[in-house]
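ARCHIVE RECORD
Type: protein–small molecule complex
Small molecule: S-adenosylmethionine
Source of inputs: curated submission
Record status: active
Notes field left blank by submitter.
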Amino acid sequence: MWSTAREIAAGDVVIIWLTREVIQPLHITPGKDFNSKFGNYKHSDFIGIPYGSKVASRTGKGFIHILRPTPELWTLALPHRTQILYLADIAFITSWLNIKRGSRVIEAGTGSGSFSHSVARTVGSAGHLYSYEFHEARAKKASEEFKRHGMDDIVTLTHRNVCKEGFTIVDEADAVFLDLPAPWEAVDYAKTALRKDRTTRICCFSPCMEQVLRTVSALNEAGFTEITMYETLLRPHEVSLVPTLQPIAEVSEKLKKAEAKREEKRLQQIAANKTRSASMKRKREGGTEEDEDEAESKRVKTDDEDAGSKEESSSHLMTRESVEMLVDEEATPMASRAPSLAPPGKMSVSKALPEVRGHTSYLTFACLVPSSTFSAPPPIAAAEAAAPNVEASSSDKIDA
Amino acid sequence: MNNHDNSAGREWMSSPGSKIHAGDMVLLRLPNSDIRSIKTEKDSTVVVGKFGSFYANELIDQPYGLTYEIADKKLTIVPPRTLQEVEDTDATNELINDGEFVQPLTIDEIQVLKQSGVHASDIIKKQIEQHANYSLKTEYSKEKYKKRKEAKYSKSFTTIEPTLFNVCEYWFNKDQNRIRDLRADTLSQMLNLANIRPGGRYLVVDDASGMVVSGILERMGGEGRVLSICDTDSPPAYPVISHMNFNSSITDILVSLNWATAEEDYMPIIPPSDIPADQVKSERQKSRLNKRRAVTELLRSTREDLFSGEFNSLVIATEYDPYSVIERLAPYLGGSASIVVHNPHIQVLSDLQTKLRALPDYLCPTVTEAWLRRYQILPGRTHPMMAMSGSGGFLLHTIKVYDDPSASYVLTHRRQKTKKTKTETEEMGRVNGEASSRETNPQEQFKVDIAMS
Ligand SMILES: C[S@@+](CC[C@H](N)C(=O)[O-])C[C@H]1O[C@@H](n2cnc3c(N)ncnc32)[C@H](O)[C@@H]1O
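STRUCTURE (tokenized, with ligand):
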């Protein structure tokens, strides 16, 4: 699956990282060009350079990073043919279903293959992924992709409707993952495909609670146990470097100074008015201006003694923009290699991004425990069926 | 480490870890949902508190996941419970006052019943019969009542398969400090972000009792190489690994160095092992020398392995300064390698992110937090669990890249007047790009996180 060589070779699939939002796959084909907002490149320029290289465009304006594909990058770069699964769900499902080297896994439908790539990586060539897709064009596209990515020895893709025809294996799968509109229709087929000599697991991925409830009943009726449901999300945090927070004592000092200055001005005004009325000849604005200049320079001096900057004193309540401006200003010294400490007077703060994904789907899980060891389970333990009250006798049962 | 020496007898390929073996650490779930950890030592008796005891041999060679009832130290397999439909009746809780919730059987009466060998479900039945208000209660609360009683008296348990998820959940609930708050969902994200696969070569720093090492080993299935760097002079005994019941073929790929022996300039002090043959007197001395030689050789080859570099990922859950760990180990990573750092405190990772984003060798360091909510699934009563884990820690993920100092941002040329300005703008963009210079540097924008988009 994908190249493990240090350097890029012709025919490799690589991931081009333009920005964190623009990540795309590229099939290295000598003779072809790669043109983007971030410069123009020739595929042949990439051949022989190590994976992970930053590459400057031919004109020197703009650059890209060329990365080795991983399923996680593939999820961000793949061509969307359907809705897809992302890291948080994929990782959690893999973990709950106990998918690891050597696992034999069923998934339906294949969709855009986001989940498929991750599972194929995890099970490796000792395991196998049986993937099913009933949409012919999607099945074809996915199967081409698996081939191009060197996964066709790990993945078997079958074009079929699993809710009607079931799966292609019997008593073999360690885990089943259903990302279908009506997973409950495939639950019995899943049971047939799962091996019975050990505990196996199933996950159904549905965005709506109504779907979950139908799935739960189907799982329960088919004899699955330990039924449980989760939701998982990933919250990205934004980190910024901001000035350490100002103590309010400084604020009150500034307020006091401002007040004193206002008072001083007022008195000057009065004095000036007096002078003006006393002598019409001296009616010149310059006098007042001079006084103000004097006051200004005095103020700056005291502020400097307070170790506050001019900008800070000019706006007592620092706006978000001014915070960012300060970060910008101080940026250049930060760029020296291997900074050992946050620069003095700065701190790193983080907060969740303002807009985050709120829901992907509900993950309904269940186990199928080996059944050969006991005879077909009665619906409830015999002793528990006999409840004392008539109206309770048929329904008073114990939940797992 | 719990290695099974006679691995030949274990068909782990066909059913990895699915059977209970002699000497395994086995997790049992009791009816009240408590989890106990026991050891199935051959011919021993397992005591599960006041709950009862049974012969360990009864469990050996059984598949994991079954439910048993204890009677006379023997185990009988009982069917797993399935969800049962509970239909509501006309009764409500309206006429029941809590104070009237009478307990018809006294403790002594229950004791007598128990000693006479009456089955737990019969005791419950008896209690229900005598429960004055029982018929007035709703099906829901009746069930709750029965469940409470059952948890108290039933002598059954279920064996829990030591999957990574189950073991992580067990440790998280038992002692989350010891695994540095690493919750199962967060751990699984780490393993995926680090691209752990059979055959890979990984560097790991695990001060989380071996939770991370366990995850990596399990995923790799004995194929590849895991090199862990620790803070002790001898290889660490990771307590979590023993719960995984790994076959030795799984753990054989793990080697370790410590922070001293992982230094290239350091010459480890090794007692001499090449003593002339005529000076070796006893057999004991000989075997001691052989052992010493093996240890020396392992140390030499492990160091060589590390220094040869080109590792595929670096996974860190450390109590030390993560930046110092990355500074030390990143040179041994190949291009495009993943670096994943877990920490229970976001402050630590915020600082780390600030440092890394100032360097051109780390692509887009990103801090994320996993959120997990579990639901109670019962007919007619499906809702999120009332209690929820607050945090499973935070992750920082970045990709190691090779810088090209001559490359420049595509839009900076608009503003550049002199060579000097250009470099400044460029560096400014690199430092703040993500947080604050969206306009100047579209190539460093921070909006949607890599992992979430
Ligand atoms: C949401 S997509 C799966 C996305 C996939 N998990 C991923 O991560 O890329 C669902 C897919 O299931 C397919 N599908 C729906 N019902 C099906 C059925 N009964 N049998 C086979 N495939 C089906 C659809 O055509 C669609 O491609």
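CURATOR ANNOTATION: Chain A touches chain B through 120 residues (CB under 8 Å).
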